[in-house]
UniProtKB/TrEMBL annotation:
Its EC number is 3.5.1.2. The keyword Hydrolase applies. One of its GO terms (biological process) is glutamate biosynthetic process. The lineage of its organism: Bacteria, Pseudomonadati, Pseudomonadota, Alphaproteobacteria, Hyphomicrobiales. This is Glutaminase. Belongs to the glutaminase family. InterPro entries: Beta-lactam/transpept-like, Glutaminase. It holds the Pfam family Glutaminase. Substrate binds at S64, N114, E160, N167, Y191, Y243, V261. Keywords: Acetylation, Hydrolase. It catalyses: L-glutamine + H2O = L-glutamate + NH4(+). GO terms for molecular function: glutaminase activity. NCBIfam families: Gln_ase (TIGR03814), PRK00971.1-1 (NF002132), PRK00971.1-2 (NF002133).
């Protein structure tokens, strides 16, 4: 037990000079208010034990990290046919880019760029009302984290709705190609609210543990998904989870990870642990600057890189 706490303390002291670097996301006004000096980290090992440091119990907006959970749900709903509507290649472009959609017939490169996640949200919405779909997403995340306290922050969702011109452009453009099946406003409503999930590092690491544990909940718990599907989601996180910085994240950390503009990163050490880190200052690619540094230090110290 003590060795985990020592490990976290040593990562924290090495990253401390960098906490506050980068810029807090301000294109979603509700996110601009967050204190850039925050830093939290939690590690959950396969037996479910939790180790944490800093602001690991403070909730933040998980934003694009939610795309991991909606992808998992959508694969459960429609299986491999999802790949007819969204690709699984890195885009090499920023998270909100539209450029590839024209020459690629409205099929987004992968489920983690905004366009891909909007298609995934549309898949989950089909046959349901937005509230039902959001209820399904929220229940799934609460089930994974074993925590009914997880909420969606309506103010963040509203704030993004007011300023979501790029996402509206992506959704309308894909609708024109027949790759959005529901009314655009409803699909975007689901997307904005999933991004507004508010979680802390402990909850996020617990919710991601199934990806480190061959698809199973902690210990020998239930399979949330098959081991094969968990492997594939990890592969997508490694290759696409940090947009046009996915190569850099693999180079520096060597683990599957998914970032969000709220400054959170969910990182998976397969068959070892799930790690969540939060620090709101973002680097030029829109990923947590100190969070990435902390994961780089952690991976080096533990030897957890998959390479
Ligand atoms: O759609 C958006 O722009 C945000 N709700 C999510 C973007 C995001 O988190 C990108 N991650 N680094």
């Amino acid at each position: 037990m003590l060795e985990w706490e020592q490990l976290l303390a040593s990562v924290y002291s090495d990253v401390a000079p960098y906490i506050g670097e980068g810029k807090v996301a301000n294109y979603i006004p509700a996110l601009a208010k967050v204190d850039p000096e925050k830093f939290g980290m939690a590690i959950v090992t396969l037996d479910g034990s939790v180790h944490q440091i800093g602001d690991a119990n403070e909730s933040f907006s998980i934003q694009s990290v939610s795309k991991v959970f909606t992808l998992t749900l959508a694969l459960g709903r429609v299986g491999e046919s999802l790949w007819k509507r969204v690709g699984r290649e890195p885009s090499g472009t920023p998270f909100n880019s539209i450029v590839q959609l024209e020459s690629e017939h409205g099929i987004p490169r992968n489920p983690f760029i905004n366009a891909g996640a909007i298609v995934v949200a549309d898949t989950l919405l089909s046959g349901h009302q937005p509230k039902e779909t959001l209820g399904e997403i929220l229940s799934f995340v609460r089930y994974l984290a074993d925590d009914d306290g997880i909420l969606i922050d309506a103010e963040v969702a509203r704030s993004e709705q007011h300023t979501g011109f790029r996402n509206a452009a992506l959704a309308n453009y894909m609708h024109a190609f027949g790759n959005i099946h529901n009314p655009v406003e409803k699909t975007l409503g689901v997307y904005y609210h999933q991004c507004a999930l508010s979680m802390n590092c402990v909850q996020l690491a617990k919710a991601g543990l199934f990806l480190a544990n061959n698809g199973r909940l902690a210990n020998e718990g239930h399979h949330a998904i098959s081991a094969e599907r968990a492997r594939r989601i990890n592969a997508l996180m490694l290759t696409c989870g940090h947009y046009d910085a996915s190569g850099d994240f693999a180079f520096r950390v060597g683990l599957p990870g998914k970032s969000g503009v709220g400054g959170g990163i969910l990182c998976i050490a397969p068959r070892k642990a799930a790690i969540a880190v939060w620090s709101p200052g973002l680097n030029a690619n829109g990923n947590s600057a100190a969070g990435t540094r902390a994961l780089e230090i952690l991976a080096k110290r533990t030897g957890w890189s998959i390479f």
